[in-house]
Protein 1
Amino acid sequence: MSGDPFHATRAHDGRAPDVFHPGGWVPMRQYRESEPVDFAIVGTGAGGGTLACKLAEYGFSVVALDAGPYFRPLEDFASDESEQTKLYWTDDRIVDGANPLQLGGNNSGKAVGGSTVHFAMVSLRFRPEWFKSRTLLGYGADWPLDWREMWDYYTEVEQALKISGPVTYPWGPPRPRYPYRAHPLNGAARALAKGCEALGINWTETPLATLSAPRGLAHPCVYRGFCISGCSTNAKQSALVTWIPRAIAAGAEIRDLAMVGRVEVEPSGLVSGVHYHRDGVWRFQRARNVVVAGYAIETPRLLLNSATARFPEGLANSSGLVGKNLMAQSNQAVWGRLEHEVRSYKGPPSLAITEHWNYEDKGKDFFGGYSYMSQGPLPQLWANTLFSARGLWGESLVEAMKDYNHVVGLRIVGEMLPQESNRVSLADEVDQYGLRIPRVTYSWCDNDKRLIDHSLKFMSRALEAADADDIWIQDDDTCHLNGTARMGSDARTSVVDADCRSWDIPNLWICDGSVFPTVGGANPSLTIQAIACRTADRIRALARRGELNAAVPRQTSIRQRSTEVHRS
Ligand SMILES: Cc1cc2nc3c(=O)[nH]c(=O)nc-3n(C[C@H](O)[C@H](O)[C@H](O)COP(=O)(O)OP(=O)(O)OC[C@H]3O[C@@H](n4cnc5c(N)ncnc54)[C@H](O)[C@@H]3O)c2cc1C
Ligand code: SF4
């Protein structure tokens, strides 16, 4: 073990933890703070980690900073739900609105690798029409991206993560075969399949970012089910074990325990670097470009906290939309009991899925769609659910827990509509760094409620059809925050353009789930990573055309080769 990851930085002195070897290190390039790097990236999760890798491989100089620790999964992660709450962003936040969001474990991560270190690995493409939902489906806002281009980037990410999925996917336009075979179904997934078949709709094995066969130094999944508590085998293809090692090998520097408090703006109106807190002091990293990739709450918070006399409403905010149009996804569940043992905790939480109601528009009284998946809660999470959703406590809770091995559940990922009133703003209180904390305001609209109602009725029928009894609904849950810095084609109605470049400040970029104009009914991380890959390609193209405040990319091969030599 190499020190306490919360109190001592691990990426320093020209080396970073080797996530594949206990106690091991890999060489890492280090940049001087006083010399501007091409890109300072705030956040190393699905958006920032992917972009750091791609930009470094294209030859740009990159420093990526994360407020969280640099974990070594093989040593730091335990099969213990309580211990693993260390993965979550639990700094103070204020929630309000008619439907206040539950933050913490349910939302963002705080670690090198971001929320992908504890995500559930469901890796879905968006329905093509969602990219033009206003024009084609009559709700939300159009994206400035074309689905065919996204389809290519989805393929790139699926290959990079070796997604395990079915041979043919039942919905949407054809896609290449998934790189790795699908995982076997567990008891919960078989119940989903049975219900779908009885109701006459399609289902399939869930495409997952966990390995169904060995990959290099990473082992295949061993079906222990601790995925959302952090996988200690490295089967999970998080940014921590995929994009970040690639980024370092290509010459990027990662700085852990580095909380960025402010993006600096020069009198010229361009940004010049980031102020960040590390090792007990505030420091400044100069940069030709800054990318904010801190998740849908921390990204607007940083932009708002970086206000100047020239940009009094915060950076990139001439549209007034920074922080607005925050979108959760609805995450309601239906639970039941099967006579035989299900042991649904075995394996990744969601091994089977139906996207029927993402692609079928007939028979809906709402805009948008939802998928639903089989569920596999671990015991502590299950006890919490019984307490918070059913009010069970004491003897009644103990009695209910005796049925744990028979529990079966279905849970939606549902589309919630963008509303300006759902937003992240700054509260007056400050955090441990003296930075104003975020206030997160959220209320469901009527459309959100109709979608939830439809899904709960349909999933109840599906569980009945799977022979479950004692069926009950958990009707207050959300997940996956996106929006707050939407992309668009018009500077008046969006924060960034299709390249994730802010309209107001040409060397300030945003690259995470914040840029989503709509959220669809599918988990977002594959789309975030696909957008990051596209952004990297666009940045390279802009640099080559001289339209970027950065050095023209160098050839990467020499540096990559020398890094590889160094590693061996
Ligand atoms: C329990 C759970 C299960 C999930 N399951 C799935 C799933 O199955 N499939 C799916 O697609 N999605 C899933 N998600 C959602 C997915 O993980 C996120 O949508 C995705 O990781 C968001 O990417 P991001 O780049 O926006 O932010 P993140 O991946 O969260 O990365 C943001 C990073 O920025 C850092 N940061 C923030 N502010 C600062 C700052 N000021 N200075 C320095 N660093 C900063 C944070 O520490 C963090 O590491 C799940 C999420 C949770 C919580
Ligand atoms: S079930 Fe697979 S992905 Fe999940 S924690 Fe275990 S080995 Fe990792």
Protein 2
Amino acid sequence: MSVNRREFLKIVSMSTILSLGGVVSISSLKNHVEASQISRNAKALTAKRWAMVIDMSKFTSEEDYRKCIDACHREHNVPHVTDNPKHEIKWMWTDTYEHAFPGNEDKYLSEKIKHMPFLLLCNHCENPPCVRVCPTQATFKRKSDGIVMMDMHRCIGCRFCMAGCPYGARSFNYKDPRPYLDESRENPEFPTRMKGVVEKCTLCYERLAHGLLPACVEAAKEVAAKKGITPGLIFGDLEDPNSEVRRVLNERFTVRRKPELGTGPSVYYII
Ligand code: SF4
Ligand code: SF4
């Protein structure tokens, strides 16, 4: 269910008034609160620090990437804003090696890698600068599992987090995003946003809470199943030595984006 910030504030102040009068109005708030504070069910997937490994060799066509991006954007009602590139909203996207790994440029880099599209998303950094600069704690790191979250209702649109993120992982709604949603593909289970707030990948916290893998990871599984190969997105607990991500990190050489900044990205790449 969607709610805009003004409606939300109206509900909050109304509830306060009713509470003061001895009547607690929780029912009208329930769906809205759950949108940002989703409750877990018994099947919830848990970790001490969620992480992802992206194996670039498993993505061989534009369509492979598109399926993951599409799964994410459809799941989270990400608007398709095309009239101004600066207004584009992206939770998962692709970019060149040069832009993704600017510190690793090399004039002898293979042509293949130079032109390969790299799948990018928020890195859910161990030390997230976006969190440090947010004045309202609209963005915060979950202590339980390291996910860097967004509470759209607290966002005042100052965009300090966008300036703080060195990975371009955040998008700002310059316009009302709702007219840019395809109604036939809208997900009624996930809230839509409003003009003036920042958004980004939240590692599918709402799916994890219900025992489901992130939408992009599921899509990568489907892509791989069709080719009879192992999936290109591997998701798991970085703190668990027996997890799939740890097994992969143990066996393969991986790189992270801009590690020199000390942000500690939780997304690793096998190139
Ligand atoms: S990638 Fe950017 S938005 Fe994501 S946690 Fe790191 S600094 Fe924050
Ligand atoms: S983890 Fe979820 S929110 Fe993040 S890019 Fe993948 S599908 Fe999108």
